[in-house]
């Protein structure tokens, strides 16, 4: 265990090495926390105990709130985050599930984007839907890998070539929750060209 090694050998580490080990411990703890949250939400969705309470949501405000949550990770990797919407993005959807969708998609964008890279967020309307696209400049994926993303039976360790991989459950939850909100999710990606995840949710009557 990392904590045991730190406790038993702390006097042998330099200050820089201690900081490196503590950073690694912090990342591992965050990943574990995210996994546990996703597992709980997945269990609720499968037992039909998850309530979907649709209302008018301003997706712009929800995105801004979630962008604030990733600021520490963004700053550590010197990633630029740009959000471009001409108007407020009003959707008819459930707050809790869509909040988790944005949290997972933004966390993944940071995780797989190279240091000094960028994340671009776009919002728009069409006749039926409000759309949000999250575009990262990360490692990207092949067409074959994209087909595995939302399949619970596939091994996520075979997707991409980054050493910083998670369980894959977060994206499966995103797919599940967006469907429960009568929406859609689409990915467009290529190896070393980054990825664009676009979600479409029913447009609120309050939308422009």
TrEMBL record:
Protein name: histidine kinase
Molecular function, one GO term: protein histidine kinase activity
SUPFAM superfamilies: ATPase domain of HSP90 chaperone/DNA topoisomerase II/histidine kinase
Source organism phylogeny: Bacteria, Pseudomonadati, Bacteroidota, Cytophagia, Cytophagales
Keyword terms of this UniProt record: Kinase, Transferase, Two-component regulatory system
GO biological process: one example: phosphorelay signal transduction system
Top EC category: transferase
Membrane-spanning ranges: none
Domain of life of the native organism: Bacteria
């Amino acid at each position: 265990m990392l904590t045991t090694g730190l406790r038993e050998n702390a006097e042998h580490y330099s200050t820089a090495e201690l900081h490196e080990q503590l950073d690694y411990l912090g990342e591992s703890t965050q990943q574990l926390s995210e996994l546990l949250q996703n597992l709980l939400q997945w269990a609720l969705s499968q037992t039909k105990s998850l309530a979907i309470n649709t209302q008018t949501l301003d997706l712009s405000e929800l995105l801004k709130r979630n962008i604030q949550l990733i600021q520490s990770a963004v700053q550590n990797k010197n990633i630029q985050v740009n959000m471009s919407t001409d108007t407020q993005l009003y959707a008819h959807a459930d707050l809790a599930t869509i909040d988790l969708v944005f949290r997972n998609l933004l966390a993944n964008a940071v995780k797989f984007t190279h240091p000094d890279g960028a994340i671009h967020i776009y919002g728009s309307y069409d006749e039926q839907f409000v759309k949000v696209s999250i575009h990262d400049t990360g490692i990207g994926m092949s067409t074959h890998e994209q087909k595995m993303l939302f399949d619970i039976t596939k091994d996520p360790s075979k997707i991409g070539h980054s050493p910083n991989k998670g369980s894959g459950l977060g994206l499966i939850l995103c797919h599940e929750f967006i469907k429960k909100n009568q929406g859609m999710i689409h990915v467009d990606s290529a190896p070393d060209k980054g990825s664009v995840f676009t979600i479409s949710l029913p447009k609120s009557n309050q939308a422009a």
